[in-house]
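Risk register update: the risk that structure generation would not scale has been downgraded. Supporting records follow, first protein first.
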Amino acid sequence: MKDRIRLIMEKENLTPAKFADSLDINRAVISHILNGRNNPSLDVVTKILEVMDYINPDWLIKGSGNIYKSGVDM
């Protein structure tokens, strides 16, 4: 899942710090996820899907389908 989170950040042109700030989570949480130290918690996944409601949950969680929900072109 860390690679999918990294892809979201790339497509949104967000640094890890800005991504964490946009989700209102500690910057270290994102750093630990990206470095492979921790897996994303349910809280992190939920916040991504709430703040970025155009992200496809199946893609984020399972890696299946498209990054964006159908009907969303970005």
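Supporting record for the second protein:
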Amino acid sequence: MPKERFPQDMEIEAGMPLAMSDGNGQQFQVTVTEIKEDVIVLDANHPLAGKDLIFDLELVEIVGGSPLIIMP
């Protein structure tokens, strides 16, 4: 993103989260990854992108389909 698109008095640092919006007004978070001479490099990936996620699930009900047959 060109530096001139940011307010001149804004102190930007690598690792800093920023809120941006797309053409439809939908907001999303980006992270400053690098500051170069004329541009600010932003990462728009979700903060959990690339991370291992572990979920604990409880199966409450199975609906529809054929009956499950378990053989020893």
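The radius of gyration is 22 Å. On this basis the risk owner (M.S.) recommends closing the item.
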